[in-house]
Q: What sequence folds into this?
């Protein structure tokens, strides 16, 4: 009987007519869950919370609910996702395989009005909210079938990574850069991001020469997948929808590999691994240990994923919005240093 009631309620909702695009069903969507501190700049509000407590924080948010929040580190990434959605809806009006952005926050519901007002001010299409009132939202990520979780809280990101969910901690660039509003650009490090940390373990434990030898011996053996392989795969599926409509040259999604590996000594295994997975990457940059920041300034990605904080910091220094993926052997060395 309860199941019949649920079906009846669902049928009623599905038959309502609206001009706004409905959020796609979670099983059809690429769901990106983003925290309020990643989407908006809440530095001042966070300081009130830490110095004056929860009640003063909630009071401040309610007193300022008509004051629009400034963009945070994930803001332009979300805007780019929505541009891709708009293009997809033009080509595939009935298709639900598109991005669905969910606001996933441990804020209390009383703060929700300011978040909604700010989202509407910027014209963002974020219909699903999960506000957990001080509790960690990570447990809800699987219920939302989350493909990627972005937060400013490194502890929650670590919790999500350990639960097997692609996640990263967001950091704002230290300079204002102009990001493309017609093409989503996503840059990935390789080892411990797209791929496992197998090769990084050898570097840390045995040095570069042993690493080069290992990679050449295993050139035809695909690397195991890392935490963001699935999200790269999701981007590839979206790209192919544009290719199918003869829109390859105008595709609004572009992907980049930016790795400290050297091409001649250890690049072949990376490219053969991607090929074995049936994945394409639009651009590959093998930097042989050179800084990544100058290349990223040329790419201007909406987000750059890396597992090592010194690469994240180097990217930020030159203005790139970077996201730290706390996965693999590099975390042990980072914590002990």
A:
């Amino acid at each position: 009987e309860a199941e019949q009631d649920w079906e009846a309620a669902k049928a009623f909702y599905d038959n309502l007519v609206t001009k706004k695009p409905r959020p796609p069903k979670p099983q059809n969507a690429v769901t990106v869950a983003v925290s309020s501190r990643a989407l908006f700049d809440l530095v001042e509000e966070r300081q009130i919370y830490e110095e004056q407590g929860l009640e003063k924080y909630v009071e401040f948010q309610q007193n300022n609910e008509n004051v629009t929040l400034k963009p945070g580190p994930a803001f332009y990434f979300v805007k780019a996702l929505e541009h891709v959605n708009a293009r997809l809806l033009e080509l595939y009006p009935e298709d639900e395989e598109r991005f669905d952005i969910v606001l996933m926050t441990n804020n209390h519901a009383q703060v929700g009005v300011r978040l909604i007002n700010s989202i509407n001010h910027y014209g963002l299409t974020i219909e699903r909210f999960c506000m957990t009132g001080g509790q960690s939202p990570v447990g809800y990520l699987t219920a939302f079938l989350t493909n990627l979780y972005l937060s400013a809280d490194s502890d929650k990101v670590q919790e999500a990574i350990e639960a097997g969910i692609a996640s990263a901690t967001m950091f704002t660039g230290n300079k204002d850069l102009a990001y493309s509003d017609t093409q989503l650009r996503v840059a990935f490090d390789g080892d411990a991001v797209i791929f496992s940390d197998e090769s990084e373990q050898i570097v840390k434990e045995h040095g570069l020469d042993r690493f080069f030898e290992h990679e050449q011996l295993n050139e035809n053996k695909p690397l195991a997948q890392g935490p963001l392989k699935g999200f790269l795969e999701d981007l590839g599926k979206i790209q192919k929808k544009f290719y199918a409509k003869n829109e390859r040259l105008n595709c609004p999604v572009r992907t980049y590999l930016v790795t400290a590996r050297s091409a001649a000594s250890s690049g072949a295994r990376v490219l053969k691994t991607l090929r074995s997975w049936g994945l394409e990457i639009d651009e590959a940059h093998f930097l042989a240990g050179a800084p990544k920041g100058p290349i990223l300034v040329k790419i201007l990605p909406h987000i750059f994923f890396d597992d090592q904080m010194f690469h994240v910091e180097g990217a930020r220094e030159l203005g790139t919005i970077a996201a730290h993926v706390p996965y693999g052997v590099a975390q042990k060395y980072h914590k002990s240093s």
